[in-house]
Amino acid sequence: VNGGSPSEPKYLPPGISQAAFAEFSKKVSDVIGAENFSVISASFDFDGYEDDDFGRNCRTHDYYRAFDDEVELVGSSLCHPRHVQDVQAVLALCNEYKFPLWPISTGRNLAYGCSAPRVPGSLVMVLATHMNRILHLDTKACVCIVEPGVTFLDMMEYLRERNLLDKIRVDSSGLGWGSMIGNALDRGGGASLYGDRWGKHSGLEAVLPTGEIVRCGMGAVQDPEGRKQAKDGVHPADQTPNESFALFPYGWGPVNDGLFSQANNGIVTKMGFWLMPAPQGITPFSVTVEKEADLVQLIDIIQPLDLNGTLQSSVSLRNLTLEAAFYGPRSDYTKSSHKELITEEDFDKAAKKLNTGRWRYIGAVFGSDRVRAALIDDIKSEMSKIPGSRWATLEDTPEEQSLVHVRATYLQGMSSMGEFQWMKHWLPNCSIIMIAATSRFEGSAVWEQYALAKELFAKAGIDYISHYISYFRTMSNICIIPYDRKDEEMRGRAQWLARTLLKEWKDHGWSVFRTHVGLMDQVADTYDFNQNILWKMHEKIHNSLDPNGILAPGRGGIWPRSYNKDEWIM
Ligand code: ADP
Q: Of the residues 148, 506, 554, 567, which has the maximum number of CB atoms within 10 A of its CB?
């Protein structure tokens, strides 16, 4: 840790002296422009974020400070490349100096580490600042090619300005501010028919750690125009992509796109996506159930409907705590302190006050009037088998139940910033860690995992915020751990809870599909079949693509051979 001089970073990366850093940063500044480079010094106000800053983009660190007790996940400096050539030039310098580089798109990564690099002192590369063009939009095929800075909101505005929303919709995350590329690479999920973000990508361009540019899938096939451009010396990144880049994801040969997702083998500079053709009509609906244990019957009703396509959108189930948080601070519902749990009596009162149940399922059906009416009929009659369940379409949902209205915007393929607004008020300095486990898509299996998580949340003295989402043939048990980031003691309990959940899940043979940067090593260790052979293979591939081990060391629990893994894992 360095002092407070503005040119001295708070953290230097391993093996880099202050003199080498000064030399390296001068070269980076010379290449990309001084205005596109800055040092993260110790004098930076790391705690200067307030609750109202929820919408601010923190590029310097994990502003929820989730795992800072262990290793402070803060870079040495930030750079903002203007184009792919800058990305290559910075990579060349990182290779020369053996300087770790952490690429991000917008770096929001809410509850998974924000912009925090795994290795303190890394150079954080913010791709979104300048590389934010929509390069291609085919309104007939409903596909696009974008750069890392294009957010869901940007895409929606682009479609709105061109009066295209009656043709095309864009599936959004809970927060429209995220990068389409960043979210897909981290395998985030959305709500509508197009919720499987990674599954809806087609074609990508990446700069390898050594600086070469590759295009995966059909992008690797050069068309006559591209061949002519190549002959004329046009830079590869500027050559016209093949017409099937965003149409057909596989191409021929090994499908290597996965090397760039939740990994550290390249910097993705372009990606193709399938967008949602605007459906003839959309009917959002919601169902609530009265008892916590109704979750079991609800899941068993949902599963076959999900499997046979009656339920078209991804299933989203929220517990009462998550619903209540949307409408007000914790103190509106309980007199208990942050060290105690909200009591059952408090929950009963909250359910009454909000006129809701213990779980709320929000979904939608898509298609013509006749198709939607038939689907709604089937779904409604199945859901009403649960005693005490309450059913409403969006039209019948009163305005004050605004959560349903907000969620419905995503289901309609429209981006917004509504869903996580509860974080502004639930606790003082409210922060969250999210861990997303998977379980079998069966009532009893979901309940077993839910009950275990509930027990551990209770041990930690933290209210269990639960959001279940269907993901292929599993239910994703997204555990949201809320804490006051300025309360050391509570932050410690949140950390304990995250690590203990992972440990207990591992004992059951369960694991997660997405995680916080500070938990990646622990998660990687749960993939332990045949003595963790899969991670050993990831590391072999990484070592061959990144011989100097400069790109996002430790991302995904994948460590280059130049790092002593045993010393680094946390
Ligand atoms: P979002 O904009 O959805 O919040 P981020 O930009 O934070 O997404 O991306 C999530 C994570 O994915 C980052 O922490 C980084 O590790 C990785 N990532 C994001 N964009 C890229 C990219 N263009 N190339 C390589 N890795 C990326």
A: 148
Token couple for 363? 């979904």
Does residue 331 have a pLDDT over 90?
yes
Residue 152 to residues 91, 96, 169, 194, 422, Cα–Cα distance (Å): 28, 36, 10, 13, 20
25 — phi, psi (to 5°)?
A: -70, -30
Alpha carbon nearest to ligand 1 atom 18, residue:
104
53 has pLDDT over 80:
no
Residue in the block written with tokens 């279940």: 468
DSSP per residue, 107-123: ---TTTTTT--SSTTPE
**Ligand 1 close to Cβ of residue 203 (< 6 A):** no
199/549 Cα distance (integer angstroms): 29
Nearest Cα neighbor of 517 from 77, 114, 188 is 114
8 A C-beta contact, residue 111 and residue 433:
yes
Residue 529 and residue 523: Cα distance in Å, rounded? Answer: 13
Residue 410 one-letter amino acid: Y
Establish whether residue 264 lines the binding site of ligand 1, counting it when its CB lies within 6 angstroms of any ligand atom: no
- What is the four-CA torsion angle of 450, 452, 457, 461, rounded to 10 degrees? 130
Pocket test for ligand 1, best of 119, 186, 259 (most atoms within 8 A of CB): 186
208 lines ligand 1 (CB under 6 A): no
Q: How close is the Cα of 268 to the center of ligand 1, in Å?
A: 9
DSSP 238: G
What residues pair up with 102 in beta bridges, in sequence order? 124
How far is the C-alpha of 379 from the C-alpha of 374, rounded, in Å? 9
What is the 493 CA–ligand 1 centroid distance (Å)?
A: 28
How many helices and strands in the chain, by DSSP H and E? 15, 19
Is 105 near ligand 1, meaning CB less than 6 Å away?
yes
* ipTM here: 0.98
- CA dist 105 and 87 (Å) reads 13
Q: What pTM, to 2 d.p., does this model score?
A: 0.96
Q: Distances from the Cα of 86 to the Cαs of 80, 125, 131, 134, 137, in angstroms?
A: 9, 11, 11, 19, 25
What does the pLDDT average to over 389-396? 94
Residue among 133, 148, 157, 129 nearest 201 (CA): 148
